[in-house]
Amino acid sequence: MxxxxxxxxxxxxxxxxxxxxxxxxLKYTIKDTKKRSYHRKxxxxxxxxxxxxxxxxxxxxxxxxxxxxxxxxxxxxxxxxEVVSYNRFVELEKEVDIPLxxxxxxxxxxxxxxxxxxxxxxxxxxxxQRIHMHKVFKGIAQRGKCSM
Length: 148
Fold this sequence. Notes:
There is one protein chain. The chain is mainly alpha-helical. It has a domain at about 5-25 and about 45-110. The chain contains five helices and no strands. The protein has helices spanning about 5-30, 45-60, 65-75, 85-95, 95-110.
């Protein structure tokens, strides 16, 4: 698990990114004056939701619900004092999917150093008996041999 200092650092970067992202969205989107707001402002900020998602993906948990209820609501309560219910968290998750993807791509991944790792495991397109029926990868894919 990530240390609390690292969690604080990631939260600070996510919060700064969210402020910048919201300012750019406000600047470049068309404002709809007729649209009404039906929900209260959430007690969890966008940066906190993004941080919980990053912590989930870096943890060993497979299920977001178990991670949120066991880890965040019980053990990380001091980091997230205004925690919401799991159902509300799932609703908030939808609002941060694009900012989260951009944050991971632009901030967390860093610069390419020129060294890249490639996964060379074979990709099975179809069974050998069906090769002549499927023409999707015709001209691109080749038949090969592997030791598996």
